[in-house]
Amino acid sequence: MPVTSANAFPAAVQGSNVETTSNVTLVQQYQSKKQVAAKYKRTKVRFVTDQAPGTVIVDTNNKYLYYVEGNNKATRYGIGVGRDGFGWSGVVKVGRKAEWPSWTPPAEMRQREAKKGRILPVVQPGGEDNPLGARALYLFKGGRDTIFRIHGTNQPWTIGQNMSSGCIRMMNKDVEHLYARADVGTKVVVVGPGNRQGAVDYNDRGVDFFGNLFGFGG
């Protein structure tokens, strides 16, 4: 594990009775035989870092997101990250959060996809077939929305891959777990291309057997 030193889709629809706009993605999900690799399953790890407990560290190179617990421990989640040309790095904060968020693709994304023959909606309501999944944490810099998010996905087989337009995607059950712990104001360190995150030390020392056995911090 290396030692190193950070703009996508607002609004929210909350509730247990969620209407979906399409069953296409759900059918694809259920029929897909691809499984998330075991190494990307949520687990507790021994983790040494100079970052304070409650910090989120996103290692885009190794496709892991860490929630720092303190006492040399962290919860590690598998993630999907930006494809070539869409990677980024920096230090941001969670500016707001949403359950079952709606998706508002940026105009440049709609234009880009239209050239490929794919027409994106101006706004897609939240729901099980929404690309942002069950939860979204909106990342801000200097009080302004970066348009990047940490969010769920209705395509869990993309975890561990470079697939997004810069957002950090997680399995829905994992983003729900993180959402309950990372409050607005949480520091998020994204380690990726450009090294704009500055000097940040972290060392994943592997699975914390006893932590997983007895649990800690949720």
From TrEMBL:
Family matches, as CDD domains: YkuD_like (cd16913)
One example GO MF annotation: peptidoglycan L,D-transpeptidase activity
PROSITE patterns referenced in this protein's UniProt entry, alphabetically: LD_TPASE
Transmembrane intervals: none
Entry superkingdom: Bacteria
One Gene Ontology term from the biological process aspect of the record: cell wall organization
GO CC field: extracellular region
Keywords, ordered alphabetically: Cell shape, Cell wall biogenesis/degradation, Glycosyltransferase, Hydrolase, Peptidoglycan synthesis, Transferase
Gene3D superfamilies xref list: L,D-transpeptidase catalytic domain-like
List of catalytic residues: H151, C167
Domain L,D-TPase catalytic, chain residue ranges per copy: 54-191
Pfam families for the chain: YkuD
InterPro entries per UniProt: LD-transpeptidase, LD_TPept_cat_dom, Transpep_catalytic_dom
This protein's pathway: Cell wall biogenesis; peptidoglycan biosynthesis
PANTHER family from the UniProt entry: L,D-TRANSPEPTIDASE (PTHR30582), L,D-TRANSPEPTIDASE ERFK_SRFK-RELATED (PTHR30582:SF24)
Family: Belongs to the YkuD family.
Protein name listed in UniProt: L,D-transpeptidase family protein
